[in-house]
Description:
Strands 4-5-6-7-8-9-10-11 form an eight-stranded parallel β-barrel, surrounded by six helices. The protein has a two-stranded antiparallel ribbon with strand order 1-12. The chain has helices spanning 2-15, 71-84, 94-98, 104-112, 128-138, 149-154, 165-175, 191-199, 215-222, 235-243, 260-269, 278-310, 327-335, 341-344; strands spanning 28-30, 47-49, 52-54, 58-60, 87-89, 118-123, 142-147, 180-184, 204-206, 250-254, 273-276, 323-325. The chain is globular. It contains 14 helices and twelve strands. It is α/β, with parallel strands linked by helices. It catalyses: isopentenyl diphosphate = dimethylallyl diphosphate. One of its GO terms (cellular component) is cytoplasm.
Amino acid sequence: MRLDRKLEHIRLSLEQNKSNGYTGFNDIMLVHNSLPQLNWNEVDTGCTFLGKKLRGPLLINAMTGGHPQLENINFSLARAAALTGVAMAVGSQRAAMETPAARRSFEVVREANPDGVILANLGADCTVDEAREAVKMIGADGLQLHLNVPQELAMAEGDRNFKGILRNIEGLAQQLEVPLIVKEVGFGMSRESVACLHASGIDYIDIGGAGGTDFMAIEETRCGKKLNWDWGIPTAISLLEGLSVHSKGCLIASGGIDHALDCIKALTLGCSLVGMARPLLRVLMDASDKGLVGYLEDLIQNMHRIMLMLGAQKIEDLKKVPAVISGKSYHWLTLRGIDAHAYARRPGPCI
C-alpha cells in the first residue's frame, strides 16, 4: 500500500492546481537600489550548508522515492543538484525500511551526486536505529524529520497519535551523528512550534509553509473527498514567525516558491536556504534532465541579477536590504505582535 501511495502522490501533486496559492510573498516588496556600486562579477550567490559549498542557497526538497518506478526521478534530481551545485533531500525512506526492493530508488541519489549535500528523510516518530539506517542508505549529510499531522489525519490509514513527538525529536538530536532538519510538509510552523524545536536542540528548521503542494488535499482526493480547507500558515508569514524567535539559527523557507524573486524575498527576510519541490518535478517531467538543469541555472542567474539590483554582494548582505511588508502578512504580524516596521527601516547594503 505504501509503495502504491508513492506513485499516487507524484501523479496527484502534478495534477494539483496550486499555482496561485497564497504564500504571502506578494505582500513583500524589496526596495530597489539605484546605486548598487557593484559589477556583475563581484556578486556571489554561493553559501555554505552543512559544511559544504553551494553555488546557490537552494534545496531540491523532499519529493519522492520508495518505489522502483521512481528510481529514475530521484537519479535525475540528484544529478541536476550535482551539476548546478545545490542541495537535495529525498522523500520519506519509510518504504525502504519495509520493502528492500524500494531501497534502490534512494541509493541512486548518492551515486548521481557523490560530493554534494544530500539529506535523508523520515517521519519525526522514527527510532534512532531507523534514523541511522536512513542516513547510511544514502550517505546523507543530514536527516530531515518531517511533521505532517494534517496529512496523516486526512489519510484513512494515517497516524492518529502524535503524543511524544517533541521528546522523540530531542532524543534523536542528542544521539545522532548528523544534523537534524525538522520540516513541515506544507502547513507552516508558528513561532511557538519553532521555539519548542529550538529549545529541544534543533538548529535547522524548514518551515514548509502553505501555498504550494497541499498534501491534505492530495490525501482527501485519494479517499474520494474534497473539503478545500486551505489549511496552514502561508510560507512568508511562517518564515517571519520563525525568525521572530530563531533569528540566529538556520531557517529554510519552502512552500509554493517557484521563481527567483520569491527566493530573494525569502532570503532578504532572513532564511538561510530556499527549498523547492513541485516546480522542479514538473520541469523534469515536461522537459527532461537537461531542462531541469537549465531551469536551476536560470534560477541562480536570476537570483544573481536581483542581488545586483539590490546592491547585495553576497547572500548575507540581503539581510540588510529594506523590505516593505503589507496586506494580509502585515495584518497577521501586527496582530501577533511581530514588528514588521523593522524590515522596512533597514539601512541597506553598504559597499
